[in-house]
Write a sequence for this structure.
């Protein structure tokens, strides 16, 4: 159980660090790619709050 | 972020912008990592069974080697390699799903669970490459220290605390170097930018120790249960399994 928790927590830290250090450092051109779809409020919510588990920029699948 | 957006950003180049990276908020990252565990307990419950495989492999290996009557060195190495690959695959399966859950959302993971997808395959090869790099790095980092201490030992007695301090320092240094490369894992899992170890090294510049601190802090609460588990394993009925004395 500790092993599972360790994998999940360490992977979580790496994911969040990746989001902070790589994905959030967009150039203006890149940011324009991530403009939320107005027809999809859930996606907009994801962009504003960056809620983990809810999709970083909203799940538009 | 959708996979399509990631593909567009990836096409613009895997290297992050050249400006200095923002400092990683250590405590916020740790708190958020724990919060994702609460949010995604159902995902953990599904992929968790696979995570138990690496923990059981040492017992399986011991039991298997006992059953084989004096296996050759080649066979022993082949068994170890095969079991290491199974452990690597299991870890890649769990970690890949978790990276995708945190970065792409529940929908991305739910769409593929419990199947093995190209994301897991990619992470498996990244883990394998990382293991090779880590092994080489461990030799390169530790060799000068060990040689220096051995030379010193031949001249005069080196106190135990010096050996312990050097070993602790080397472990810390290796953790630091390893974590600087580890951002390639979430990148590989979601197919995002900065997938190479080199790009991960660049992206974590100036944040290496913060990343180490966040990883250490997030794992800190696991120490008591892990210690208890080891004590149980060493003293209880499970010690029979540890020795490979499986029934039958």
């Amino acid at each position: 159980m500790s092993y599972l928790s360790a994998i999940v927590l360490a992977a979580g830290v790496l994911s969040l660090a990746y989001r902070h250090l790589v994905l959030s450092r967009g150039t203006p051109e890149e940011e324009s790619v991530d403009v939320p779809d107005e027809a999809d409020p859930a996606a907009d919510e994801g962009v504003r709050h960056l809620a983990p588990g809810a999709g970083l920029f909203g799940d538009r699948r | 972020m959708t996979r399509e957006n990631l593909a567009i950003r990836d096409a613009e180049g895997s290297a992050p912008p050249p400006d200095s990276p923002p400092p990683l908020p250590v405590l916020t990252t740790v708190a958020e990592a724990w919060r994702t565990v609460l949010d995604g307990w159902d995902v953990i419950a599904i992929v968790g069974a696979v995570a138990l495989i690496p923990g059981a492999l040492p017992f399986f290996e011991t039991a298997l080697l006992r059953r084989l009557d004096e296996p050759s060195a080649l066979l022993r190495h082949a068994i170890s390699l095969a079991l290491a690959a199974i452990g690597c695959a299991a870890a890649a399966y769990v970690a890949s799903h978790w990276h995708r859950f945190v970065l792409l959302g529940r929908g991305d993971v739910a769409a593929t669970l419990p199947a093995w997808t190209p994301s897991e395959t990619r992470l498996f090869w990244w883990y394998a490459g990382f293991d090779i790099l880590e092994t080489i790095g461990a030799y390169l980092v530790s060799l000068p220290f060990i040689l220096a201490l051995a030379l010193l030992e031949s001249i005069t007695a080196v106190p135990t605390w010096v050996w312990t301090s050097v070993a602790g320092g080397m472990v810390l240094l290796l953790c630091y170097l390893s974590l600087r490369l580890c951002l390639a894992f979430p990148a590989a899992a979601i197919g995002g930018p900065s997938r190479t170890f080199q790009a991960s090294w660049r992206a974590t510049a100036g944040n290496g120790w913060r990343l180490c601190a966040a990883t250490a802090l997030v794992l800190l609460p696991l120490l008591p249960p892990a210690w208890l588990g080891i004590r149980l394993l060493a003293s209880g009925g499970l010690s029979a399994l540890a020795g490979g004395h499986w029934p039958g």
